[in-house]
Amino acid sequence: MPQQIVSRLLDLIQQRHLGPGDRLPAERELAATMGVSRSSLREALRALTVLGVTEMRHGTGTYVSSLEPDLLVRPLSFVLSLSDGGFDQLFEARKVVEPAIAALAATRVDDATVDRLDALVTRAEAVIENSEAFMLTDVELHDIIGEAAGNAILERFMESIHALGLASRRETGTKRSVREQSAKDHRAIVAALRAHDAAAAADAMHIHLENVAQAR
Predict the structure, then answer these.
(1) What 8-state DSSP symbol labels residue 196?
(2) Residues 51-66: tens digit of each pLDDT
(3) CA quadruple 16, 20, 22, 24: dihedral positive or negative?
């Protein structure tokens, strides 16, 4: 029953009936509305809190969290850290999808967006000593390339992969050598995008992902 309650509440959030920061109805009211016991509801809410989907505020009730990817990925980070297979599958998925996204972006990107990417690589090089700051520029660069591809479905798909990717970036990003190589790889990707060379952009992205995967 708690699992069913979790699924129903997640559906409400996915369907936008509940949004970030919204307060859930009082426990008694919510249990009655859902036709479940209060003990089952409490167990479900505790599970959602562990997942980062909700937060319990003493004296005021339970609220939907900010639903920020970094918050939601924390329990997944722990799961991935227990198994090399999780990271391997993540990189496998990225190597299938992201070169194709880069190729699409090369045919559709405008000069202003390439200039943004170029500036982002420069910023990454400037903060190369700071692994967390570098990671943020890394995520932003891949997100912008995803937007430039102009395919909403691929963009949403990449949002989910990038959320998981935060965990792997925190692991590999601790190594300065990986950050230095990533900065070089990003330069090559941006150069291919500026040239509107789809094949070169796909190759540069694939090489980049291979380099990061092998650095683990």
Answers:
(1) T
(2) 889 999 988 999 999 8
(3) positive
